[in-house]
Amino acid sequence: MDANELLKKVRKIEIKTRGLSQNIFAGEYHSAFKGRGMTFSEVREYQYGDDIRDIDWNVTARHNHPYIKVYEEERELTVMLLVDVSGSRLFGAVGEDKRTMIAEIAATLAFSAIQNNDKIGVLFFSDKVEKFIPPKKGRKHILFIIRELLDFQPENQGTDIALALRYMTDALKKRCTVFLISDFIDSHDYQKALTIASGKHSVSAIQVFDKRDARLPDVGLMRLSDLETGQECWVDTSRKSTRNAYAKWWYERQQQMNTILKKSNVDSASVATDEDYVVALKNLFKNRTLR
Q1: Nearest to residue 166, comparing CAs of 98, 82, 86, 42?
Q2: Are 136 and 78 in contact (CB under 8 A)?
């Protein structure tokens, strides 16, 4: 896209996602990831509006009056976005394309991070590490990241999540908050790499998919093209058995992904391109605070 069009898209995403991070996510983000960069300071009497999750029940029982734990910043957090830039992210049949939604989700997380005074970095990956942007603070840095999210052109089209996770684990020595954003269309085994990464870092996974990824429409003869390998084939979608077989493949793939995420102790959210990702992110943050 040309410079003017890119600038307009960057500005549009900035306005939308910065507003979301300020009005909706800032508090939830802080609550969800507090404790990674906070250290216990003292206890004090409970005051109206305090988070009940911070109540110190032992002190409360001794004094017969509610007391809460007070934390202070130990250090700033480092947030890393692992962003899938493989060929399949360009697909968009229902709602917006996956690339645009991935960019919006990543930008919302980035603005939430800087609202919390955290550093933010990005790793773009296909079946190779395409680009690594070291963690930094500031609006200028965020806008650079958004531009890259929208306009980055990868050298390769395949997907290798395990390779990206191994690179991140080797490159970042201190514990980070990591968001892995992908459609998870990957033929490689990434469970071992994900387990190692989640043992060292706090990892959350966000799947972005198109509903046409999950189900074939009944439109007769259709030419299908794999955006990552370039392979093409003709499929008769009027046959119910064909549509059912495809739906079965998608279901089994989703079940396998969910099993891997659960075994790796990774919180996750899944959102379709025609759905509201705000709901998915809020649920992801909420689930983290309940752990």
Answers
A1: 82
A2: no
Q: What is the CA radius of gyration of the chain?
A: 21
- Distances from the Cα of 145 to the Cα of 18, 42, 98, 112, 157, angstroms: 13, 38, 17, 14, 20
Please, which residues have CB within 8 angstroms of residue 284's CB and are 6 or more apart in sequence? 32, 204, 206, 267, 268, 269
3-state DSSP helix/strand/coil % of the chain, to nearest 5:
45, 25, 30
Question: What are the residues facing 8 on neighbouring strands?
Answer: none
What is d(CA 250, CA 47) in angstroms, rounded to the nearest whole number?
Answer: 50
- 262 SS3 class: helix
- From first to last of its 291 residues, what are the pLDDT tens digits of the chain? 556 676 677 777 777 777 776 665 656 666 666 544 555 567 888 888 777 888 888 888 888 888 888 765 555 688 999 999 998 776 555 557 788 889 889 988 888 887 777 889 999 999 999 999 999 988 889 889 888 988 889 999 899 999 999 999 999 988 889 999 999 989 899 999 999 999 999 999 999 998 888 888 777 887 776 666 667 778 888 888 888 888 898 899 999 999 999 999 999 999 999 898 888 888 888 777 555
155: its two tokens? 């050298």
Task: List the one residue out of 108, 132, 198 whose CA is nearest residue 162.
Answer: 198
How many Å apart are CA 102 and CA 152, to the nearest integer?
A: 13
The token pair that represents 83 in the structure block: 């962003």
Cβ–Cβ < 8 Å for 167, 123: yes
Q: State pTM to two decimals.
A: 0.78
Q: Are 137 and 120 in contact (CB under 8 A)?
A: yes
CB 71 within 8 A of CB 40: yes
Task: Confirm if 189 and 256 have CB atoms less than 8 A apart.
Answer: no
